[in-house]
Amino acid sequence: MDTPYHHLHAPPYYPPLLPEEQPSDAGTPASHRKPFKGFAAILASAIFLLSLVALIINQTQKPLPSQNNIVPTSKPTSFSNPEPRGVAEGVSAKSNSHLLRNIKGSYNWTNAMFTWQRTSFHFQPEKNWMNDPNGPLFYKGWYHLFYQYNPDSAVWGNITWGHAVSADLIHWLYLPIAMVPDQWYDINGVWTGSATILPDGQIVMLYTGSTDKSVQVQNLAYPADPSDPLLLDWVKYPGNPVLVPPRHIGPKDFRDPTTAWAGPDGKWRLTIGSKIGKTGISLVYQTTDFKTYELLDEYLHAVPGTGMWECVDFYPVAINGSVGLDTSATGPGIKHVLKASLDDTKVDHYAIGTYNPANDKWTPDNPEEDVGIGLKWDYGRYYASKSFYDPYKKRRIVWGWINETDTESDDLEKGWASVQTIPRTVLYDNKTGSNVVQWPVEEIESLRQNSTVFEEVVVEPGSVVPLDIGVATQLDISAEFETELLGSGAMEEGYGCSGGAIDRSAMGPFGLLVNAHDSLSELTPIFFRSSNTTKGTNTYFCADETRFVCFESELIPFDCPFEVSNRICKCLI
Ligand code: DQQ
């Protein structure tokens, strides 16, 4: 059921504290731990896991989402914060949310904490700030990952393209920075972009530059030496920028070009996210040489009320098939996924639909589940995802950025911020016909060393079953749950993960408690929430980071299904 992983990267980077500040032993009592997890990696990874328990919450209590039994005795206190980073520069907020900044000062970090909070197998730079994955591609035997990177600090700013390569998508080699802001058309940041591989193998890289006047423009770059499998050097096209915001588009609402796809007329198309008022849109351009472009009158798609679309991703999926498709594939048996990262909510949303190559328009299969109002790509901390086609293994792989729950001052003290998800393969779900399925790339299997299996564990409603896995620092957990019929069978609209692990539904939620202290005074539920809806049963895979948190200003008298006392958090679930 679980498999401890070994450490995979070089020793972690962090600015070591003075020796006298180090703890007398490496162990960190839970009550002295930093009150927020540094990041949430939902897909079955658990760090510093002390005990592992499975839970099912009483099925008989089924409050409506608006009637749950969370009764905070005090509201978060008000506080003043500077404007989040990035907003003035014309991009999404890059610092933490209101609630999570409601922590005064920085935590009392120790070297031991710095060490166990680094990942072992999720990609992260050696140090400093990272955000979106950029231009992923496979070239001459190497997987390349570029990423938004601040080489100078653990906060967003001075954005360059960091670069790493891997032969297996798991073990990474850090390479020199690929592109820095050094031209008037990108001096305020070499922002997000995508790679297109032409049929003759040439690589075309298009990225957004924030100009000296903070206008968002699109720029072209290509490898200086195509015979170099590591693609170490990049040339910016002297004629940059190749695209400036069209007249009806705001100068700060024009970013993140997609991988291009070829139409039946042989011309290339690409799409760029934007907005008109509150309507999120995706502009379409056609080109033959990637230097000159024609803007189409019609959008690829638009959804009122969804706001600015960042990091649009657009690609085909096979209706019946177990392989991924190259971005230019069209024809019968193919649907197209359209994904947008919503600037207003910081959530990646997608929908499945039909692309018409004759007019370059995409129509959702189900308008009620359109982009931004229906499916989310992930229900945890996840943003700015980008996919690429891997011709070597014939699969489509998607990366997503997992940002921090830390405060900025804590990030600065740690010396780093954020990780990328484990890359995931994406396929159309031909069982439901309405969503995609994602799975960590198969290479992850190579990391498994030994395992402990628990079978036929019975978890009664409202109970917690400890699973003794001994001591481990990294785990990969595969869990299969068999459930009884859904509660009373009453209909309740699926409301995803909102409400966290405490919000009960007809069945559960149920799942695993990880990062759990012996007393269960601190824990992180990774859980499933199922509900009967008019359209069938919906199941969401969720993580609840707030159960790990003790807000000193908020004593929350939850109705505990098990006893936890003498803690500032009176009950965590
Ligand atoms: N991050 C980049 C932008 C993009 C945003 C700037 C999304 O290009 O819109 O770092 O996180």
UniProtKB/TrEMBL annotation:
<feature type="domain" description="Beta-fructofuranosidase N-terminal">
    <location>
        <begin position="14"/>
        <end position="113"/>
    </location>
</feature>
<feature type="domain" description="Glycosyl hydrolase family 32 N-terminal">
    <location>
        <begin position="122"/>
        <end position="440"/>
    </location>
</feature>
<feature type="region of interest" description="Disordered">
    <location>
        <begin position="67"/>
        <end position="87"/>
    </location>
</feature>
<keyword id="KW-0325">Glycoprotein</keyword>
<dbReference type="InterPro" id="IPR013320">
    <property type="entry name" value="ConA-like_dom_sf"/>
</dbReference>
<feature type="transmembrane region" description="Helical">
    <location>
        <begin position="38"/>
        <end position="57"/>
    </location>
</feature>
<dbReference type="Pfam" id="PF11837">
    <property type="entry name" value="INV_N"/>
</dbReference>
<feature type="compositionally biased region" description="Polar residues">
    <location>
        <begin position="67"/>
        <end position="81"/>
    </location>
</feature>
<dbReference type="InterPro" id="IPR021792">
    <property type="entry name" value="Beta-fructofuranosidase_N"/>
</dbReference>
<dbReference type="GO" id="GO:0005975">
    <property type="term" value="P:carbohydrate metabolic process"/>
</dbReference>
<keyword id="KW-0865">Zymogen</keyword>
<dbReference type="InterPro" id="IPR050551">
    <property type="entry name" value="Fructan_Metab_Enzymes"/>
</dbReference>
<dbReference type="GO" id="GO:0005775">
    <property type="term" value="C:vacuolar lumen"/>
</dbReference>
<dbReference type="InterPro" id="IPR013148">
    <property type="entry name" value="Glyco_hydro_32_N"/>
</dbReference>
<dbReference type="GO" id="GO:0004564">
    <property type="term" value="F:beta-fructofuranosidase activity"/>
</dbReference>
<dbReference type="InterPro" id="IPR023296">
    <property type="entry name" value="Glyco_hydro_beta-prop_sf"/>
</dbReference>
<dbReference type="Pfam" id="PF00251">
    <property type="entry name" value="Glyco_hydro_32N"/>
</dbReference>
<dbReference type="InterPro" id="IPR001362">
    <property type="entry name" value="Glyco_hydro_32"/>
</dbReference>
<keyword id="KW-0378">Hydrolase</keyword>
<feature type="region of interest" description="Disordered">
    <location>
        <begin position="11"/>
        <end position="31"/>
    </location>
</feature>
<keyword id="KW-1133">Transmembrane helix</keyword>
<protein>
    <recommendedName>
        <fullName>beta-fructofuranosidase</fullName>
        <ecNumber>3.2.1.26</ecNumber>
    </recommendedName>
</protein>
<dbReference type="InterPro" id="IPR018053">
    <property type="entry name" value="Glyco_hydro_32_AS"/>
</dbReference>
<comment type="similarity">
    <text>Belongs to the glycosyl hydrolase 32 family.</text>
</comment>
<keyword id="KW-0326">Glycosidase</keyword>
<keyword id="KW-0812">Transmembrane</keyword>
<keyword id="KW-0926">Vacuole</keyword>
<keyword id="KW-0472">Membrane</keyword>
